[in-house]
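JOB MANIFEST
job_type = single_chain_structure
chain_count = 1
residues = 358
[input]
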Amino acid sequence: MSKVKEFLKKKDIEISLKRYGIDALGAMAQGLFCSLLIGTIINTIGTQFQIPFLMQPVATVAGVEYTVGGIATAMSGPAMAVAIGYALKCPPLVLFSLIAVGFASNALGGAGGPLAVLFIAILSAECGKLVSKETKVDILITPLVTIGIGIFLSWLIAPPIGTAAMWLGNLIMWATDLQPFLMGILVSVLVGMALTLPISSAAICAALGLTGLAGGAAVAGCSAQMIGFAVISFKENRWGGLVSQGIGTSMLQMGNIVKNPRIWIAPTLASAITGPLATCVFHLEMNGAPVSSGMGTCGLVGQIGVYTGWVNNGVTPTAFDWIGLILISFVLPAVLSLLIHWGVKKLGWVKDGDMKLS
């Protein structure tokens, strides 16, 4: 048993929740951002500003024409798999082999492709690491093992994983349509908290294909966390903290949350209020890329995703739509968080300096 542990340590294979549930999942979201999300944004820019280079096909593969954004979007599977491999510290030959694995698992996983990529890329990467540099023909064996196992698993389990993810995502969206108030609270709070925790809310939303009203609630929850922490910690962190948390990530407060969990009360309660307002009052829907649902105000990706959904579905947003998006994303999270935080401080649960970023 000790020899097995030594071998795994030598191969840098760490079977843990942190390695797979935090590092790999977070990296997958970045890969998705750099492919599907960026491709969607490029397509939207090209369409809205009538830029010929971004609107016209630049490549044709197997009879399918691709625009610049289309190419980026089509590479989402390989991008996610390579990002996961990077997080798992794969040797070069394993890392490069994951390109084919990512393409296969994403394609065969259908609507739940991202979740299939996560599972299959992790298994393929670790198997590839086991044989890496163990033979004199490493340049043949390592890619053969990594790709062979990856393609086999893609054929075997990607479709059911994709079906399960799509079913769960559809169930959440159906429940949100059926009970927009209760589910608006639930989705907003849980996805918002996931954004602040060291896990990826974006990857979760992408894996479940979370769009529609549920996606709108997710945007509300994530925005409440980011804007909420940005404004209530302004006294300690000033403008740098406002920007880094407001359009960066509220995850920066994780260390302070561990020290005093009560600083989390204001943004979380704010999300419990803005979620149902988004679903019941403003009927805010995210019909852009599902990954945008879990991004909140990070780079304004959540808001761009909502706008992209309007464009892609031929919807001309009204003044009420714009007001709703601005209120849910920025104004209400700031006002509600400040009011709730004032009450929390009056109770003596939080004091000045508790949210100071190092």
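[summary]
The chain has 16 helices and two strands.
The mean pLDDT is 92.
exit_status = 0
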